[in-house]
């Protein structure tokens, strides 16, 4: 009788140990997969930025370098535009007007990166590195969408605010009478038509 009880006790003990072993194994696998997935994201982001920087360094201020940069950054633009429900062709146009696809661009007033974010704006948007293409585009699109909502969906006023500040747009109750701002809006819409036709052509060929 004692032998049977001992055998049952041993079997129960082994079952508990087996369950604990399986649980620990599952936890280790989960942590490992999460680490690998995060590492792949980091590598992908670093590779993307490295590929972009290589393009602009090799062909600085040349059409070849700009086209390469546009191609490399296309997925980031599409992702950010889709997330904030903004026309990606318009975002491409803003980037072209702001920096000419130069991620290292710095204006005289201190605006940085592809979408020329001012330091205070970048900080408010949670952008840690304004020269990082993904962070800059993500923050810039979010900021532009905020302006579109602020001015009741009026894209021209949103562009004016992006260029001259929303305070000036409110003060003049419309597009400010600044030549630079008026030229900027025209330039963005000119690029917008180009990118819109380009993206429509790519969609039709797909």
Explain what the structure shows:
The protein has helices spanning about 1-60, 65-85, 90-100, 120-125, 135-150, 155-165, 165-170, 180-205. With about 210 residues, it is mainly α. Helix 6 (about 155-165) crosses helix 8 (about 180-205). The longest helix is centred in the first third of the chain and has 57 residues, at about 1-60. The chain is globular, with a radius of gyration of 26 Å. The protein starts with a helix and ends with a helix.
Task: Draw up the topology in text.
Blueprint: H1 2-58, H2 63-83, H3 88-99, H4 119-124, H5 133-150, H6 155-164, H7 166-172, H8 179-205
Descriptive key words:
206 residues, mainly alpha, 8 helices
Q: How would you briefly describe this protein structure?
A:
This protein is an all-alpha fold. It contains 8 helices and no strands.
Poorly predicted spans: 31-44
Tell me how many strands there are. 0
Average pLDDT, to the nearest integer? 81
Task: State which percent range the strand residues make up.
Answer: under 5%
Helix- and strand-based class?
mainly alpha
Helix/strand order, N-terminal first: HHHHHHHH
State the shape: globular
Q: How many helical stretches?
A: 8
Largest sheet: none
- Give the CA-CA distance, first to last residue: 77 Å
Radius of gyration: 26 Å
